[in-house]
Write a structure and sequence with these properties.
There is one protein chain. The chain has a 15-stranded mixed beta sheet that branches. The relative contact order is 0.10. The protein has a domain of 187 residues. With 382 residues, the chain is an alpha+beta fold. It is built from 6 helices and 17 strands. Helices cover 26% and strands 41% of the residues. Strand 13 and strand 14 form a beta hairpin.
């Protein structure tokens, strides 16, 4: 047997051995990355965070029974719910293909069976996981280059492929509408956001949210899709609400002295874009089977009798078209007032009457929640 034939037969063995060695090195690097990720998660949760079990596996870090209690819950000036966040299971998966890169790459973060409480303050500011979002950022060492190749004193760059929320619940507390804060509950939420680049939050992220809006008489559905860039706050979003119970949202529709809503439902289609700090949003609002309580004489600034007559003439349905517009950095611009003023004006136009003193309404929660979550993730994974 010649040396040439022996060489031809043995090279596949060398190739196989090399591939096995590379696989072992990659597995070892992956396990190191996962253990580092475990330490970062434990540190980020802080002393108040509770975890029933934390597992490090071949695919990533699995967190079971996570709970973040609120500070001073339900107390004066405190958080309106006992918990900021609760989750049955969170799976954080690093990207094995990027272990040797100059930045941390997470393939996905999957959150299952979660509960999240969100607060809109009296001034209209959205607060999401404030104990994480407001914590001081973690920076790289001040001397020399760090192992990831980052510049001294700069926060580690983290890329997240996608964040998924599965079968979860959100309590939205709005203190800008009334005191104590109005509570709107969303259930059966499935959401996806990504990619995300931390800490800069630059680049377009795709957003998709579906869920159920709880009500006293009936439950409605919510669907929000589109894209956002958290750094510039530019967005292109489509919101669709169907069959939402009006009694749950009546503080957005009427003043305290006006007629209350006894029953009815609402459909809403709204397409908003934010470019260069300016919002533009055409929409359609439909009120179905609206039944007003007796007492006051007005509803959304309109005579109660006119609204009742309109419902009868239109087979229990009022549909109006409106357009939201304004510069977000203008102190005089209020999305609450803009929304309900446009809706009320459209209804009034169809009635042929003028309006004064319209009630404030809902607005701005979607992008604010995403921004708050982005800040929290920034703290958690850098």
């Amino acid at each position: 047997m010649t040396s040439a034939s022996t060489s031809r037969r043995s090279w596949p063995l060398f190739l196989l051995g090399g591939l096995l060695l590379l696989a072992l090195l990659a597995l070892a690097a992956f396990q190191v990355a996962v253990h580092l990720l475990e330490a970062q998660i434990v540190a980020a949760l802080g002393p108040r965070g509770e975890v029933r079990e934390l597992k490090v596996g071949l695919t990533g870090v699995e967190i079971l029974g996570l709970r973040l209690p609120a500070e001073n819950p339900s107390g004066k000036g405190g958080w309106p719910a006992p918990e900021l966040l609760r989750a049955e299971r969170i799976l954080v998966v690093p990207s094995i293909a990027d272990l040797l890169g100059a930045r941390v790459v997470l393939q996905s973060i999957r959150i299952e069976g979660a509960y999240l409480s969100i607060l809109r303050t009296r001034s209209g500011q959205l607060q999401v996981l404030p104990s994480l979002a407001e914590a001081s950022p973690v920076e790289t060492p001040g001397k020399g280059e760090n192992p990831a190749g980052q510049k001294p004193g700069r926060a580690v760059e983290v890329r997240i492929g996608k964040v998924e929320l599965v079968d979860s619940t959100v309590d939205f507390f709005d203190a800008s509408i009334r005191q104590p804060a109005l509570k709107v509950r969303l259930e059966q939420i499935n959401a996806r956001l990504g990619p995300l680049l931390l800490p800069d939050l630059t680049g377009q992220s795709q957003l998709q949210v579906e869920g159920v809006v709880k009500g006293k008489h009936r439950d409605g559905t919510l669907k929000l899709t589109g894209q956002v860039e958290l750094a510039s706050k530019e967005s292109d979003l489509e919101l669709r609400l169907r069959g939402v119970d009006l009694t749950a949202l009546q503080p957005y529709l009427i003043k305290a002295a006006e007629t209350g809503v006894r029953r009815g439902s609402m459909d809403l289609d709204l397409h908003t874009t934010v470019r260069n700090g300016r919002l533009q949003g055409p929409g359609t609002l439909t009120l179905n089977q609206l039944e007003l309580a007796s007492g006051s004489r007005s509803f959304m600034g309109m005579p109660r009798s006119a609204v009742v007559a309109m419902m009868k003439d239109r087979q229990g349905r009022i549909r109006v078209h409106f357009v939201l517009s304004g510069k977000l950095d203008d102190p005089a611009f209020s999305l609450n007032e803009n929304l309900m003023a446009k809706v009320g004006s459209a209804v009034a136009e169809s009635l042929g009457i003028s309006l004064e003193g319209l009630a404030k309404g809902v607005g701005g929660a979607g992008s604010g929640v995403v921004q708050g979550l982005g800040k929290s993730l920034n703290k958690l994974f850098k």
